[in-house]
Design brief:
The chain has about 290 residues and is of the alpha/beta class. About 30% of the residues lie in helices and about 20% in strands. It has a domain at about 5-150 and about 175-195 and about 255-260: Vaccinia Virus protein VP39 (Rossmann fold), CATH 3.40.50. The chain contains ten helices and seven strands.
Length: about 290
């Protein structure tokens, strides 16, 4: 597994904030499929957290689905949240947004009923993030997430393999490794499944443009930093064109869906307390006052 450069990731996603929504077709489709699974959750959560919320697509849908709940979105890239906030209607009550790193969530223990995370974990130290989820989830709280599996962008990987041995695509974890990390973090009864979705483009350049616009640049810490060169890039492009189907350039994504529950026994769960050095919160997250009944 290649190490990722967190600072580079933050810069990549921050710089993509203005173009993200234009290119994030896959991310929205997967979000819709993930949120459909909330139909199986019968209890209405009081506190909902969208981790890695980007420009707020999932967060807004969660706020609409749970209008009486407190819904918050966290993201590492503050410009993404600026875009999310700009979508709010004037004076309409909406979700709260805060800049924070998923490796150190600035929320107290046992305070969240539902965590949703859409296509974020592949950019993280997954085990550390699961530890944080286990810490902040209430006993019996629900975690629902998606991430990319190892067959993601397999065409891109194959095309570059004939050119050089440098890592041009992130190594995505297998579904079984993800399940093991869930269990090690003390999250309960993990349920995993997967599917493959394929986007198609007119040209290789269009596909690469989409990746840049969502901020998914190669962030491998030890990635090749020399100039790609016109010759090598042309070889890559020619190899990719040979993978075309019906004259369309394919880009396949293995989507892994996961669900787990917060532990009733928190003994042995290790995570930050919301005040660790990895937290970069710039706004205050406060649990809402419980509504009075009667």
């Amino acid at each position: 597994m290649h190490l990722l450069n967190t600072k580079k990731l933050r810069r990549s996603f921050a710089s993509a904030a203005n173009t993200y929504d234009e290119a994030a077709v896959l991310q929205r489709e997967v979000a819709d499929r993930l949120l459909e699974r909330l139909a199986y959750i019968k209890e209405v959560p009081q506190v909902v957290l969208d981790v890695g919320c980007g420009t707020g697509y999932c967060t807004e849908l969660l706020a609409k689905k749970y209008p009486k709940s407190f819904v918050a979105g966290f993201d590492i890239a503050h410009p993404m949240l600026v875009q999310a906030k700009s979508k709010r209607r004037w004076l309409r009550r909406g979700p709260a947004y805060s800049t924070a790193d998923a490796h150190g969530i600035p929320i107290k223990n046992n305070s969240v009923d539902l965590i949703v995370s859409n296509l974020v974990l592949q950019w993280c130290d997954q085990a550390r993030v699961f530890n944080e989820f286990a810490r902040v989830l209430k006993p019996g709280g629900v975690l629902m997430f998606t991430t990319f599996g190892p067959d993601t962008l397999m065409e891109l990987r194959m095309a570059w393999a004939g050119v050089d041995d440098n890592p041009h695509v992130h190594d995505f974890l297998d579904m079984h490794n993800i399940g093991d990390d869930l269990l090690h973090s003390k999250l309960l009864e993990p349920v995993m499944d997967k599917e493959t979705l394929t986007l198609t483009y007119e040209t290789v350049g269009d596909m690469l443009k989409d990746l840049r616009q969502i901020g998914a640049n190669n962030a491998v810490h030890n990635r090749f930093t020399g100039l790609t060169g016109k010759y090598r890039f042309a070889r890559f492009t020619d190899a990719y064109k040979k993978l075309a189907v019906d004259n369309r350039i394919p880009a396949s994504y293995e989507i892994v869906y996961g669900q787990a529950w917060g532990a009733t026994d928190k003994a042995g769960i290790v995570g930050k307390n919301g005040a660790g050095k990895d937290v970069i919160a710039v706004e205050t997250f406060q649990e809402p006052q419980r509504p009075k009944h009667g």
